[in-house]
Structures are given as structure tokens and as C-alpha cells.
Amino acid sequence: MPEVLDAELDEQLSCVLHGAADLEAIRQVLELYRGKGFSAQAVYRYLGQARAGAVDAVEDRILEAMDIASGYCPAGCRVWDTPR
Question: pTM for the full model?
Fold first, then answer.
């Protein structure tokens, strides 16, 4: 079980990751984390913890979210200004 960042946002992210949400929906939740002052590194760590034991489809979405959090994505998809 990952460490809690923000219970409400964590639940929202979990629903998006476990549902058939598209990348934009995942990105929007990550923007909410940024808006509350969470760093890209904190969210990346949270996602890494959530990845443990995830089924393949969910793990794929978690990896996509981790790419966004790390900045390893197209410029238009980035949420945090992170050095590459």
C-alpha cells in the first residue's frame, strides 16, 4: 500500500488508473497534485509504490503517469517543469 499524499487525490488517481481513463484524465489528476504543492518526485514515488502488485493494464497506466511525473513525455503533456 503506498504512503498517502492526499487521501482524496490518491483515491481519484486510483480510480483513474484502475478505470479505462485516457492519458489526459491521468494528467488532469497529476495537475491537481501539482496545484496542491506536491513535487513531481513525491508523486513519482507514490506511483512507484502503487505499481507494486498492480495487474498489467493498471501497471501500464501507472508507468504512463510516472513518465509524466518524471517529465519523460512530450512537452505538451508535462505537468511539472522537471529537468530531463
Answer: 0.91
Residues 6+ apart with CB under 8 A from 66: 44, 47, 48, 51
Residue 38, helix vs strand vs coil: coil
Length of the chain: 84
Domain ranges of the chain: 7-77
Per-residue pLDDT of the chain (84 residues), as tens digits, is: 578 999 999 999 999 999 988 999 999 999 999 999 999 999 999 999 999 989 999 999 999 999 999 999 999 999 998 654
- Residue 73: phi and psi, rounded to 5, are -160, 170
Residues ≥6 apart with Cβ < 8 Å to 17: 26, 50, 58, 61, 62, 65
